Amino acid sequence: MTPIPLSLYIHIPWCIRKCPYCDFNSHPAPAGVSEQEQDYVHALLQDLSEELPAIWGRRLESVFIGGGTPSLFSARALDDLLGGIRALLPLRPDMEITLEANPGTFEQARFRDFRATGINRLSIGIQSFNPQHLQQLGRIHNREEALRAVDIARKAGFDNLNLDLMFALPQQTQAQAMADLQQAVDLAPEHLSWYQLTLEPNTEFYKYPPSLPDDDLSADMQLSGQALLKDSCYAQYEVSAYARSGRQCRHNLNYWTFGDYVGIGAGAHGKITQTDHTVLRYRKFRQPARYLAQARSGGFRSNEQRISASDLTFEFMLNALRLRTGFTPELFARHTGLAPDTITPALELAVSRGLLALEPQIHATAHGWRYLNEAIQLFLED
């Protein structure tokens, strides 16, 4: 049987300033963060070493360095990190290595050095090109720095860029949303992550909600934006992901097809399929200081949980049905260890309601794409 693909997610928890909409595990960088980066790299490699028994003999297909703002770290620290990973695990020869970057941290020499470490994909957190919206979102960059970041990335040798962009921002008009998206398209990135701003618990925006566009206006923005992206040769392959031909994010595709991933770093999550096909999820200690302290005592996991067989189907669908092309019964069986006929009753119900289709493989219909949560919930056991 074809082995389940394995990826590595690395979390760097520090940023210059916490944005009011952000619910990720990010913390304003302390004054001495540059002195801490080598200690943190040491902890990351120790963390990975402790995960090796569960993944022994398996090859890494992709690496994603997220945060926080990973581009705060020096190229030397990231080179040490990637060198340590290469010493511990076999890697796919043409592996995708992504670094998240904030436009406010771009310097030509710095990003040329990042490219020299083997990082070959950048995900740049633009969010908006509009000065008013950038200020409301608490971003540390302005429009000119966003444009300059893409130019610097290209000159540093990066030929695989993702731009992160949001719509339905506070007091945003449809014209402003389309202007943002058109500017992003004009920069010709290989990939665009374009998604609606949502108010997440434990954020400043959730506690003090800004005035957001209503549902009808948000839907109009989405439909107009999807048409613009299609006309600009960006294919939507996932709910909020659009790519030029052959430039889909391999790392995120592994998530959405229910592949395995090791998570290292403060607050990182992981999912590993055991030899008996049981699936284990775990999380690392969230606070950076606590995480660094574990480097002295060992044991970076703060909790772990085995996914029950009854929950496996739902978790698989929660990911795979986000993909436009859906999935095959064979992939479901390989990545869950369950027989394809276990989902037959729910599939038949979804098809009868017009939510899913079975050809050329199992996928959401246009109606099902609109009501995706309803389709996914059919795979929840009572």
| Strand line-up in the sheet with most strands | 9-10-8-7-6-5-4-1-11
Return the CATH class of the largest domain.
Alpha Beta
Helix coverage percent? 40-55%
| Major sheet characteristics | 9 strands, mixed
Query: Approximately what portion of the residues adopt beta-strand conformation?
Result: 15-25%
Measured distance between first and last alpha carbons: 32 Å
Mean pLDDT: 94
CATH topology of the largest domain: TIM Barrel
Number of helices: 15
- Quaternary status: single chain
The CATH level-2 architecture of the largest domain is identified as Alpha-Beta Barrel
What number of domains? 2
Number of β-strand runs: 16
Q: Specify the overall morphology.
A: globular
Gyration radius, to the nearest Å? Answer: 21 Å
Spans of at least 5 consecutive residues whose pLDDT stays below 50 are none
Structural class: alpha/beta
Give me the CATH superfamily of the largest domain. Aldolase class I
What is the element layout, followed by pairings?
Elements lengths: L5 E7 L1 E2 L11 E2 L4 H23 L4 E8 L7 H14 L2 E11 L6 H9 L4 E7 L3 H6 L6 H13 L5 E7 L6 H13 L4 E6 L7 H4 L7 H17 L3 E4 L2 E3 L6 H7 L3 E6 L3 E5 L5 E6 L3 H10 L3 E7 L1 H12 L8 H8 L7 H9 L3 E2 L5 E2 L1 H5 L1 H6 L5
Parallel strand pairs: 1-4, 1-11, 2-3, 4-5, 5-6, 6-7, 7-8
Antiparallel strand pairs: 8-10, 9-10, 12-13, 13-14, 15-16
Helix pairs in contact: 1-2, 1-10, 2-3, 6-8
